[in-house]
Amino acid sequence: MSTVSKRPTLLLVDDCHVERDLYELTLRAEFEVMTATRGSDGLQRAIAEHPDVIVLDVMMPGWDGWETCAKIKSHPITADIPVLLLTSLDDQDLSQHSFAVGASALLNKPCPADQLRQCIYAALDQPGPSRAQTVRPTN
Question: For 29-40, how does the pLDDT look when each residue is reduced to its tens digit (9 = 90+)?
Fold first, then answer.
């Protein structure tokens, strides 16, 4: 008897189509990737689809990544989903704020695909409330 392994589902929310498309292209071999362009759309998609993990851009029009993360974490259907935030801003205070709204990790853009993939798998392996981490790009 063979067992079919279900690939993890990932919701990628980013208003920049170039970055969103690039991350989707590099991650779709290992994940079922869904996308949204705004925080409000991402929340609705998360409620409807309940992905295994969510990757949010911080700087978006309308709800930014922090507000979207807080709404995801406060909704009973989506509260258990790990959320990773991506930012091009470089400020240590952002880490504390990100974790305060429930993010599992804050990664700096540009984030190499291998590093993002590693953080996604780490978030998927964490039981219960996730342990927050900040990941700085490697040069």
Answer: 999 999 999 999
- The pTM score is 0.85
Task: Evaluate whether the domain defined by 9-125 bears CATH number 1.10.10.10.
Answer: no
Cα–Cα separations (whole angstroms), residue 15 to 39, 42, 48, 87, 123? 9, 11, 20, 12, 23
| Under 8 Å between Cβ of 83 and 72 | yes
d(CA 122, CA 91): 23
C-alpha–C-alpha distance, residues 38 and 49, integer Å: 16
Token pair listed for 25: 């292209």
Q: What is the DSSP letter of 50?
A: -
